[in-house]
Amino acid sequence: xxRCKSCxxxxxxxxxxxxxxxxxxxxxxxxxxxxxxxxxxxxRTCPDCDIPLQTLDLGIDxxxxxxxxxxxxxxxxxxxxxxxxxxxxxxxxFSIDRKRIDALVREQPGAGEKIVYRKCPVCGVLMQRxxxxxxxxxVVDQCRAHGVWLDSGELKRLxxxxxxxxxxxxxxxxxxxxxxxxxxxxxxASRDSGSPAIADGFAWSSPTNSRFxxxxxxxxxxxxxxx
Length: 227
Ligand SMILES: [Zn+2]
Ligand SMILES: [Zn+2]
Ligand SMILES: [Zn+2]
Prior knowledge:
Strand order of the largest sheet: 1-2-3-4-7-6-5
Bound molecules: zinc ion
Order of helices and strands: EEEEHHEEEHHH
Number of strands: 7
Oligomer: single chain
Shape: elongated
Radius of gyration: 28 Å
């Protein structure tokens, strides 16, 4: 169990804020990666505190920079960096623990809180709120051009979700949806081209024929079946 760095009280599950003393605890990068504060300040601004973000080097595969607010411990990732960090931090997940995933999604803090749109630390345009991987339950702030902002504690929750097989489940569902879409498209294509899928080459006598010979048809059908 994680404990508050200020008063040593146990932290509530899935939260980085101590209920006793109110301190914000740095849970996101603890035990995941060592980091060095590379440049003390960057050009980028914390959307909550309005102060410059720090640049951290996580030292993955050489250099791996992310940005963090020293006050609220929010993190900013350039496009693709969050996914890369998640892949580096959690791998070898082969099973899906649905109970654990459901519990993680249910226990998201901040449910029912007023929704706040934040400014991108780079361009200042209001970011979109996106449920990461559609079903993680972690709502992140995203600027399509510049990256993703995570509140303190959200990275840890995403990693817990991935460890429980959440990402695996997401990919499996997406794969199934793609296959279903392809199946539907094939069905439509064969319908549009007018080529019936089964009775190829066999045409029923047109109604303008004075009479059709049932025997001929049966011979034709059975002839084909027993060929
Ligand atoms: Zn505390
Ligand atoms: Zn901040
Ligand atoms: Zn931006």
